[in-house]
Known about the structure:
The protein is α/β, with parallel strands linked by helices.
Amino acid sequence: xxxxxxxxxxxxxxxxxxxxxxxxxxxxxxxxxxxxxxxxxxxxxxxxxxxxxxxxxxxxxxxxxxxxxxxxxxxxxxxxxxxxxxxxxxxxxxxxxxxxxxxxxxxxxxxxxxxxxxxxxxxxxxxxxxxxxxxxxxxxxxxxxxxxxxxxxxxxxxxxxxxxxxxxxxxxxxxxxxxxxxxx
Length: 184
């Protein structure tokens, strides 16, 4: 799962003398964001997730607009109905714009997909998603933290081949033996 609580400890084991930081299983990017390397290549095979990271890098204002638009739907439809509508939109056409909101609003912040059809099935969480202003501040902070990062849609084998002597690679792959509900 998310390594936010452990990111500083994980980083404490890294050498400080490296050329490029590589993270082939990006996910939430907790370690990447905490490390804030000058030069990095981060990747994942989850296309909607990569779209979020690329938008953070290339157009943070667009990422903020995506979130704010979906957050406003809550005042129009109510939280649960808006969440279910956005989830239905995502399931019909997976995309980063819907996923970024769903990740902030879903139960426990853990996105789950059904094995048989890939349908995102996580229910709406009991909490209220952060406001667009609060989300925007986080986007601005993470945009700075990840400014030197290239984000790629690629599998880990290709990502690993990109690492060169003097680089550091952090691997936190999905735990298929314990998280079948998440990864099938």
